[in-house]
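**Reference record**
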Amino acid sequence: MDPKNKTPINEPTWEIVGFDSATHKMKSAPMTLDFKGNKLTYSLDKSENHDSSDLTYQDSKLLEASQDGKPRGIFRDMRIEENGVISLAFSNGVVEPVARIGILAFTNDQGLRKIGGNVYEMQEGTINGENRPLSGNPILGWDEEGKLKFGKIRHKYLETSNVNAGNALTNLILMQRGYSMNAKAFGAGDDMIKEAISLKK
């Protein structure tokens, strides 16, 4: 068949093939095929020993290709979705989820112990004669479908609770003092150069 127009390259060749019911063997005269101007003879009943042919009528070519994968990708960016899923983005367009940020809630958040900055930990206390978490047991923030029941994750946002106003003001004062000292040092250097020039004159 011609792969372009789906038509036969050669005229079809017809032969009658019979079977011997007693010997269960094939009965057929040798079949002659016209192939590129050459005559190829085959014996279907194997009465004549002919090797098979690996000739092709025309050079093979790729007519159609499909791909079910992606080429190699290089890591480009990391993003955090509102539901806490951490995904990696690659140069080949693939975005692969790799982890998830744990989100918990407590019935009594005042029962948590602050250990520094905005970091807290659970602490136990005696309730009705039993040692229990003062904050209550943690409640997972996702439902069975993996959706957040409360709260959202904001990527590249800064919460006011993450900023210590005292430390921020102290750093601002230090930077201002450093700027003033540098400015005075440059001014003193200019005065010394001017004095040296005047002495030379």
